[in-house]
Every structure is written in C-alpha cells, then in structure tokens.
Specification:
single chain, seven-stranded mixed beta sheet, two-stranded antiparallel sheet, 27% helix, 36% strand, globular
Amino acid sequence: PRLVEETGLWSQPGVFSFDRIDPGSSLLAETLPPQVGEGADLGAGTGFLSRRILAGPKVAALHLVELDARALACARQNVVDERARFHWSDARGVALRDLDFVVTNPPFHAEGQEDRGLGQGFIAAAARMLRRSGTLWLVANRHLPYEAGLKAAFRTVDLRAEGHGYKIYEARR
C-alpha cells in the first residue's frame, strides 16, 4: 500500500479505482445527507465513503464490509475512527442486522465479466440488514437495471441524483 497524493488515501494497484476517486462514489458522497445511528458501507473499498460518513457526529457505528483483503487493509489505514468496524466478508452474506442505514457502490464485474447479479445481491443483503425504518443509499452506473430489485425490497425508492453516467437512489424500508 502507498499513499496516493491525489486522493489522500492509502491504496495499491489492483484495488478498485486505486489511484483516483471513482466518479460514482464521488457523486454519492456529494448527495448523501449526514447519517444517524448504526450503518454499513457495503463494498467499502479503501474507505472513501466511510470517511465521509464518519465525519457526521451522529453516526454511532459504521461497519465497513469488503471482500478484497488488500482494499480492507488500506481502509484500516484510511479510516481511523473508533466507531469503525471492519469485516473481511462478501457483503451478500455478512451477518449484520437492525441497521439504520446502508451505503453502497456495489461491484458489477466478477472475473472480468459484467455480472448484474452482484448489485442485486447487495440490494437484497441491504434489505435484510436494515431495520424497518432503515435507509439504503446506492450508486449505480446508469445502464444497470436495479430499479425492479429496489422496488421489490423497499417501500419507497427515489432517484436522488444523476450525473456523469451514474444514478443515486435512496430506498426506505
């Protein structure tokens, strides 16, 4: 791992968007209101979104869930906050429950191939993790058809922002 001066984050080659802030994550960070309570960042990567979330004083705890051990090691360096909890796990199977919020920029590639089922799996996992009044904030590439999965799992689904080929959804249980 090395400090990438342009981002101010520890990262390394091979990690998603290792030397830049992903534009979708950037749009989500700009759109995301301050969060309250206990939440999770599914597919936390190097911790860019987690740092933004933990800047809010009303966040009680944040679970950073990441499958890539290299990215999680970087997140541990980038997110130095006693409220952070690190999970080396596939977000689709992590055992978290009764969360107030979930934030995610889910992957949509596996082994070099587009796999739209990954994002659908993240949506289903978030729905299981959230308490009845919980909220999911999700960023997706504009071409990905996540709307049906969101509407099936959540009471309300609102498009909150669009730009640069991405869309931001707020979904409430």
